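Kindly go through one protein, given below as sequence and C-alpha cells. The question is how this chain folds according to its C-alpha cells.

***
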Amino acid sequence: MNGEITDLGPRKKSAKIIAQKLIKEAGVKAAPVSLQCIIEHLQLTHDLEVRRIFTSKKVSGLLVVCSEMDKEYSTIGFNANDSWYRRRFTIAHEIGHLLFGHACTKGQGNGSHNEREADVFAAELLIPTKLIKMDFKQLPNLQQLSNLYRVSQQALTIKLIECRLV
C-alpha cells in the first residue's frame, strides 16, 4: 500500500473532534454556525485572510500558506460564483485543510484522504452532531433545517444519514 492510509476511521474521528473543539472555543452554541466567529477566533492564532476569488467552475476554493522568516500567513479563497451555501462549505473545508496542515496533494496517494478529512471537518463544523440531533427532534423538516444551518440539502442529508437520524 506504499504507506497510504486506507482507513479514514481515526482521521474522521479526529476531524470531528477538532471541529467540535473549534466550535466550543469560538463560543458557538446554536445553529447556524457563524463562520465569521470561527474566522475571527482563528485569526487569534493564525494570520488568516478569507477572500473571494473569481475562477472557473472547477475550483470551489483554495488555501495558500506562505512562510517568510518566522512568520506564516494563510489565505483562503472561495469561488464568488458559487451559491452561498456552497461558499460556506468551501470555507469550512479549507479551514480543515489549514488546521490539519494539508499540503496540495493532487495526484498523490493520500490526496483523497485529505479531501475526505476536510469534508468531514467541514460537515461537523457547519452541522455539529450535538446540535443537529437536538434540532432534528424539534424540526424534522429537511428544507427548514437546511435553511437553519445554512447548508445545502445534500450536505444536510449526508449528515442526517451519518447520525442515523433518517
About this structure: Confidence is low (pLDDT under 50) at residues 1-6. DSSP finds seven helices and three strands in the chain.
